[in-house]
Write a structure and sequence with these properties.
alpha/beta; Rossmann fold; 2 domains; 7-stranded parallel beta sheet; 5-stranded parallel beta sheet; 11 helices; 14 strands; 17% strand; elongated
Length: 348
């Protein structure tokens, strides 16, 4: 009987992981658990992997004699792999297995899976929420009202922003999240420009138009929102030159990854009044440093990397990860293996 460890946390709970396993691996009751401290304690770099929680020592102890680990944040490092020779499947319940050393896992014969699309709906909704908040400056007006101010003078034409209905909104990236954002914005009556070299034909809503260059989407949009994955090609995708191409009074939204955007350049154009505002959920350094220029900008709406935070996200994460465990136990091909050379067949 294969031993399974669920290494849950305070978002993707062990109870959710084990409930999902009861559906996908009902004949494997040998399950132990380890509770990681995220998000009560922020994730951090552990060994050579990023965005992990807990410690190598606690994971090594919990993995002794364990063949399968189902987790969101546990650190799969070279040290952990060397100390846990029975491990064969490390199922990560997040959109990308950044907390796993894939090269080392491949070398040690461990398959690593992930959970694409688990938070796509939540992140799309949060993106549109940031858009609305930045357009109407809702957090700023709320803070002023709670402090005792009643500022009806914001009705001045020079101070008001655009509407989403009838606006042109540019999407940079059209994957699981970008396509959901487009569907929501279609209901608002927005016109949508999409830049994504890998877009599938026939997937755009009727009000969307595909453009061929980044420059087209930046220059033609009233609101621009980022949805690209971070790769060597997309790191720093929007910088000084790109921001200068945006319309005066436009709005920029980033709930994807901080590495896509030059934040110093963004602060410059926000301070200069070239852009009307920005809505941001991700940053180049997290947590956002106390001295960040963004904290002093009245036209920036900020949230602390919460776009994917919803109860359905946690349930979907557990379900996708447990389904991979079930496939492995039945000897079926894994659907979301990050190191396909090890798209494992069961060895015990």
């Amino acid at each position: 009987m294969s031993r399974i460890l669920t290494a849950g946390d305070h978002f993707v709970l062990n109870s959710l992981l084990q409930e999902a396993l009861s559906r996908h691996a009902p004949d494997h009751p040998d399950i132990t658990e380890l509770t990681l401290p995220w998000p009560v304690e922020p994730f951090h770099r552990i060994g050579e992997v990023d965005e992990a929680s807990g410690s190598e020592d606690s994971l090594i102890e919990a993995l002794q004699g364990v063949e399968i680990c189902l987790t969101q944040m546990a650190p799969l490092t070279e040290r952990v792999l060397r100390a846990c020779p029975d491990l064969r499947l490390f199922a990560v319940t997040r959109g990308g297995p950044v907390n796993a050393n894939l090269d080392a896992a491949t070398e040690h014969g461990v398959a690593v899976t992930f959970a694409p699309g688990r938070n796509a709906t939540a992140t799309a909704e949060h993106t549109v929420a940031l858009m609305l908040a930045a357009v109407r400056q809702i957090p700023q007006r709320n803070a002023e009202l709670l402090a005792g101010a009643w500022r009806s003078d914001y009705y001045r034409y020079s101070d008001v922003g655009p509407e989403i209905s009838g606006a042109t909104i540019g999407l940079i990236g059209y994957g699981a999240i970008g396509s959901r954002v487009a569907a929501i914005l279609h209901g608002f009556g927005a016109h949508i420009l999409v830049f994504d070299p890998y877009i599938q034909p026939g997937t755009l809503p009727p009000t969307a138009t595909q453009v061929n260059t980044l420059e087209e989407v930046l220059a033609g949009s009233d609101i621009v929102t980022l949805h690209s994955r971070v790769t060597p090609e997309t790191t720093g995708l929007v910088g000084v030159r790109e921001l200068s191409l945006m319309k005066p009074g436009a709005i920029l939204i980033n709930a994807a990854r901080g590495a896509l955007l030059d934040y110093d350049a963004l602060c410059d154009v926000l301070e200069a009044g070239h852009l009307y505002g920005a809505g941001l959920d991700v940053y180049p350094s997290e947590p956002l440093p106390a001295g960040s220029r963004l904290r002093a900008l009245p036209n920036a709406v900020l949230t602390p990397h919460l776009a994917g935070a919803s109860k359905p996200t946690a349930h979907k994460a557990a379900e996708i990860g447990a389904a991979e465990v079930g496939r492995y136990l039945r000897g079926e091909p894994l659907q979301h293996c990050a190191n396909p050379a090890n798209a494992a067949t069961r060895v015990s």
